[in-house]
Fold:
Amino acid sequence: MPERPAVVEARDLRVYHPTGRVFAARRWVAGPISLAVQRNEFVGLAGPSGSGKTSIGKALLNLIPTWEGEVFWNGLPVRRTTLRPLRASFGWICQEPTLAFNPRRRICQTIEETLEVNGRNDTGAIRPLCDWMNLEASLLDRYPFELSAGQIQRFSLLRVFMLKPEFVVLDEPTSSLDPINQMQILDRILEWRRLHGLSALFVAHSRRLLAKVADRVVQLGEMA
Structure:
């Protein structure tokens, strides 16, 4: 029986920023890098600030167009595949969780909209997930600015996990939190992986943190 393809694979991936107003130019900010994330594997991506870790993560999810190379989801080339049906299975969790929420809408409105956009109607799962995340259900009626950093990051996890993704990019998800909230968020991520299965690229500049959560670590400039 042939092996199943990696959940996410990048081959000679490079990311650039366009520069110049008259003549288009490219400023390369990351890569080339090749890596593959297998099913239920956590791969760490290490590197100092400014090394392009976040850009690599966004390129893997095709959230930015400014990249070259090849990226595959479950063996499908992302630039030659209709991604809309797959989007719910490939998530992004960043270090600034407020970016995932419209500041003018209540938390429940954003979460319900996420379900609707992705063709899901399982609103009954929201409150059990709140309990699992140690979030009071009453917080669903709050606006993002009314929540603490730890609470809003838990809701950002809930918003992605409720779609039951195959793969997520975790971009420094605990860097803006205090040590207690950091440990609680990491515990929830690892517990979700244990209970439901999850593949992830975990981006961080701390190799000590990655040693705790990742099965292996890729340093920018090295091949996986």
About this structure: The chain has a mean pLDDT of 90. The two ends are 25 Å apart (CA to CA). The longest strand covers residues 25-37. Helices lie at 53-60, 107-117, 126-132, 149-161, 179-196, 207-213.
